[in-house]
Amino acid sequence: MRRFGRTMVTTALAVAVVGGTAGWASGDSQTAVTGPPPGTAAWRADTASGRSLPDPATASPHEVARFFAGLDDAARRELVRSHPLVVGNLEGAPVGLRYEANRIAITATGETRYASLAAPDRQILAFDPRGRGQVAEVFGDLEQAEHVSVIVPGADNDATTHDARRKPHTGPAGMARALRSATGGSSAVVAWTGYTTPVGVGLDAADGRLAEAGAARLARFTAGLDAVGAPDPALFCHSYGSVVCGLAARHTDATDVVAYGSPGMRARTAAALRTGARVWAARGPSDWIADVPNVAFAGIGHGADPTSAAFGARRVPAADVQGHAGYFTPGTQSLAAFAAIATGDAR
User: Fold this and answer.
1) Residue 288: which of 245, 222, 239 has the closest Cα?
2) What span, in angstroms and rounded, lies between the C-alpha atoms of 147 and 141?
3) In sequence order, which residues have a C-beta less than 8 Å from that of residue 332 and are 6 or more positions away?
4) CA 247, CA 266: separation in Å to the nearest integer?
């Protein structure tokens, strides 16, 4: 009974802290964007070369890849022109076609907040304007790279904030650029803001609802990478993004799962993630995530601290990391270790 009482007290503390009594910002409740992309109904009603089009909701990425392999260039281009939002988000579709389709889809929104994403030098692998907007951007040559890494961000990231250049090395795109540079360009890196993230640090950040929806999308995204012949990825999972990765890990073919600034991965141990990937964890000395109670009760809290010895993850050195988002700052121990993981050189 006393153990139950301690659990209740700890859980109450977690809710109070997450609610803002420790000076954090409370968050607005978000509705997760799920399901196939806009335009799917028109896509389902269309054909190409007399063949039905693969259903975005049910066709596997490998089925999609085989479908596109059977089309000539003219048929592919017509699908891009007629259904850019579907092609741009269709896991298993050729990478170059997706870049082209998303440039068209972004321009078609007419929204200035997305305009920079349509620049000729941007490689946008996914774009969904629903809600706050979702985006996946590739840095490097995804089709020719020896290694692929995927950045999975935490709260307050969406299609308009994922490349906040006023804070270099901190947002998803900034982390991706820093990691690619640290690998000497041998790894392609995807900044994957492909799920509805929490806003602020409120109840959305304390429960697993958005993470569960994000995990399903991340698993399908990695299956899409496999379908187009990309190397098995290393997942770099920041803050709430590590909750997403924890739930998705067993459904991906990731070589490594790296949790940094993590509130927990919804698992008691690394083994409980049920993944063949190597599991790593990092936390800097001034990261406020250390103040989040590592509890899991009635859906609140994300469980064990991934940097604890009991969790069993491999530790990433992070003694010189500043704050919650400084893990990719050039010159830090953590970035050097991340680069070694990304290139398969870490042991």
Assistant:
1) 239
2) 10
3) 318, 320, 321, 326
4) 7
d(CA 42, CA 19): 43
266's CB contacts (< 8 A; 6+ apart) are 208, 211, 243, 246, 247, 296, 302, 303
C-beta neighbour count of 284 within 10 angstroms: 24
**Geometric angle at alpha carbon 255, from 216 and 345, rounded to 5°:** 150
Helical axes 73-82 vs 95-109, angle rounded to 10°: 30
- Residue 254: band (very low, low, confident or very high) from pLDDT cuts 50, 70, 90: very high
pLDDT at site 300: 87
Joined together, the tokens standing for residue 135 give: 């985006």
pLDDT digits (tens, 9 = 90+) for 271-310: 999 999 999 999 999 999 999 988 877 778 899 999 999 9
d(CA 164, CA 286): 22
Q: 59-89, pLDDT tens digit by residue?
A: 999 999 999 999 999 999 999 999 999 999 9
Q: How far is CA 84 from the centre of its chain?
A: 22
Task: Round to whole Å and give the CA distance between 59 and 234.
Answer: 25
- The span from the CA of 270 to the CA of 155, in Å, is 23
The amino acid present at 231, given as its one-letter code, is: P
Alpha carbon 235 to its chain centroid, in Å, reads 8
DSSP type of residue 17: I
The pLDDT of residue 301 is 86
Sign of the Cα pseudo-torsion (229, 234, 237, 243, in order): positive
Furthest C-alpha separation in the chain: 70
- Determine the Cα angle at 248 with ends 325 and 344, to 5°: 65
Please state, rounded to an integer, the average pLDDT across all residues of the chain.
Answer: 92
Q: What is the pLDDT of residue 167?
A: 80
Structure tokens of 10? 């700890």
